Write the structure tokens for this entry.
Amino acid sequence: MHGDSSWHTTRSVPSIVVVVLIVIWTVFAVQWKEKDCALVPTSYLLVITHGTPSVFEGCGDHAIDVTDD
């Protein structure tokens, strides 16, 4: 019985890590959405390619339109 419990614990740790990473990715994507970028897929892709937006980056009418790359 003890062996089953430890297997379950080690199995759930990667799942928790994945959920935490998705939450962090979403928080960063929302920052791009606030700069007038579409949340899906544009904002999520911009997190990968550009990280978090600077004051001068955004989509549409902002100083540097990162979607024109």
User: Anything to note?
Assistant: Helices lie at 2-33, 39-50. The longest strand covers residues 57-58. Residues 22-69 form one domain. The chain has a mean pLDDT of 86.
